[in-house]
Amino acid sequence: MIAVLAEKPSVARELAALLGATVKKEGYLEGNGYAVTWALGHLVALGLPEDYGIKGFQKESLPIIPSPFLLTPRKGSGKERLLPDKGILKQLVVIGELFTKCDSIIVATDAGREGELIFRYIYEYLNCRKPFERLWVSSLTEKALNNGLANLLAGSDFDNLYLAARARSRADWLVGINASQALSIAAGSGVYSLGRVQTPTLGLICKRYDEHEKFIPEKYWQLQLQHTKSFIDFKSVSVLAWDDKAQAEDALKSIQRKGHAVVTSVESETMEDPAPLLFDLTGLQKEANRKFGFTASETLEIAQGLYEKKFITYPRTGSKYITQDLWPELPGLIRGMESDAALGKLLSKVKFGRLNKHIVNEAKVTDHHGLLVTEKVPSALSVKEGTIYHMIALRLLEAVSESCVREVTDISLQVLHYDFKLKSSKVLEPGWRGIQEEFTDAEASTDTIPEVKADDQISITGISLLEKQTRTPELYIEASLLSAMEHVMVDTDDPKLKQAIKHAGLGTPATRAGIIEALLGRDYIERKGKALLPTPKGASVYSLVADKKISSATMTAEWELALAGIEEGELDSDDFQHKIESYARDVTLELLQVQIKTEGVPQLLCPRCNEHHLLITEKVVKCPEGDCGWLQFRKVCGVLLSHEEIVNLIKNKQTSVLKGMKSKSGKSFTAKLVLNEQSEVTFAFEK
Which domain holds residue 264? Predict the structure, then answer.
């Protein structure tokens, strides 16, 4: 029997149908010599500190450097966060039994780094030694799956991909766990969350917000002339910008008296605007955010859904190119769009005999090629699904179209000793821009200008003073933040390093949306319209670590470069492990020495264990020692306990009378909170 492991039940059902495994069992389908099961995402993950016997946040336990790393079934959430999820355990038992019975395994998890890690962690956790082959496809259409099943790849071909995924997983654990605990211990109250990619990304947002808030716009003035020649009206603008309005007004008066300008030069050239490449995930997310306001995670979720419905290829791609063997399929994919009402109208603009082949580049396709539609054309999609699908389809049409050709004319004028300029851009061949008829101001024809030549005199029919001001640095929106994460500004004078990490960044196309959502979920940043701003909490956290190693975007980009090297087989994963362990030690030591002002936050011993200082956060008061586990929510029946009342409760064993509390039925009541001998908090009502 051959066991097949998919990432999700929906994909498992598709594979089972193709393989003839039609008999439904608990957690899998079987038949025709196959048993097809699924993983429900990450069933197995790296263990938490508690799995190594480390309870609570203890300075003496840091840094935590596991050797070896433990793998455990994925934990629950909330109160169950330290216990294995029951559904996960149940499915792991199913997979374990199938792996024991089978002769070999087909790995059909998503064809990417995370998909590989999902399988390998399960395989390692179950201590399995059965041989396995890899199903590696870029779409889930029947044709693609059948072709993939007929051409399974050796599992060992993906060892480096797994090593890179494992190295990333361990690096995030080492830095995230140690840095977060170290800063929380240094603070003495509250729990802080730091991360290898999360913290530098927070830094980008905080620094841009700071630049935006501190920016003082400066006014300047330019002159605009109106002209008429051969019955054609047009305008020119001064090259010089004055920061003194009076000087600009003096120039205006002088020019008015002169009354005409002289043409000093006329330069025309034909320019080609190359067709865009295909979308990779980050490009799709940026465009969807700019044009439609979609968040990065929203775009990824929609694209993943379209992929699972077989309408587009694998979305988590970092490439904008395709391989030569895919090129012959493109005309068929494009012609298939005819059944889509909106797309079908555009096919007449596609020159099938002269498709642009610039998207073919074997060297720039790694795990997956750029985003494509498949031969399966949807007949009904939600509005948002339709938006993303059409973006991908339209980009394909644009990518295979010819360049947009423009005639650009620059004219220079002079009045007295003042220089003026005007520019005209006329579209000669719309090329790819004709697909959607989208032309920016610079690319479309501007106001018509007459035929002029050097030394011609041009009359001035009007003059105006334009008041302008320097532009405030724009706050990040998700599109611009994704660009900043993708292309980190390298803070180094080493030219070799600059070149080496030119294409590295913070995170990967598949992880950047999750980083942004994590910052939002932890209340470190917030959305205001489309803009991303740091919250007071996020700004406070970043201020503590702004000059620390954990915040270095350059160093994080170097780690990303090293991980890419492991994936390519150019770097040793064990060497990377040693370096990241050393880095985690340095970061931990650095953060433990952070001096944090905690005015107003009382230092109180835990009433239960009398050993550890209580952590006082916005929501809870708790003992950091896991074995003790004493906890009191700060909001009691709708009333928030102040620091003063927390001190009263712990030191005096009771609070003052608290008014305005409400019962479950909504009735108001007044009472004290009392700490009894068992360190339990109860109500004491006035008699």
Answer: 219-274+404-469
